[in-house]
């Protein structure tokens, strides 16, 4: 019998704390699926989720981040068109100017209420959940 398990990933909501209103960072993906996304990626074998989040931020936008908290887990089987993934989302802070690197074609800084229209995966939902949490202290509930 062959087992097929979801693949663990991390996504990072990075608040730029050296700017007014603590804007967050999005990248335009270089590889399919194309569109805008939060920085993040696959967890390597033998790597902790926290290490993966810090590594992915550095690889994609060139910034050192400080993880503040584990925000939420997103696991809908269709959240990634390439395969079934489970994403552990972290909130992090950083300072400086992000630079698109690795899998990022471009990088953008935006306020959470100015969400780009071409978001990949379920990142629109993640950002909406984050906005509710950050501004109204409403943490997202469990989804089935």
UniProtKB/TrEMBL annotation:
Task: Using the record's annotation, list all stretches that form the Nudix hydrolase domain.
Answer: 7-133
Give the SUPFAM superfamilies listed for this entry.
Nudix
**Record GO terms (molecular function):** hydrolase activity
The coiled-coil segments of this chain are none
Ordered alphabetically, the record's keywords are: Hydrolase
Give the PROSITE patterns listed for this entry: NUDIX, NUDIX_BOX
> Which CDD domains does UniProt cross-reference here?
NUDIX_NadM_like
Name the family the entry cites: Belongs to the Nudix hydrolase family.
Record's protein name: ADP-ribose pyrophosphatase
């Amino acid at each position: 019998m062959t087992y097929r398990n979801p693949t663990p990933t991390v996504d990072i909501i990075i608040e730029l704390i050296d700017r007014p209103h603590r804007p967050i960072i999005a990248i335009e993906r270089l590889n399919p699926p194309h569109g805008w996304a939060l920085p993040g990626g696959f967890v390597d074998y033998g790597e902790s989720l926290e290490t993966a989040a810090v590594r992915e931020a550095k690889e994609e936008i060139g910034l050192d981040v400080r993880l503040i908290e584990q925000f939420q887990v997103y696991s809908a089987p269709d959240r990634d068109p390439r395969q079934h993934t489970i994403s552990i989302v972290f909130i992090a802070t950083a300072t400086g100017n992000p630079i698109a690197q690795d899998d990022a074609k471009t990088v953008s800084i935006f306020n959470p209420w100015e969400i780009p229209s071409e978001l990949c995966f379920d990142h629109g939902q993640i950002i909406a959940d984050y906005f509710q949490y950050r501004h109204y202290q409403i943490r997202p509930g469990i989804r089935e």
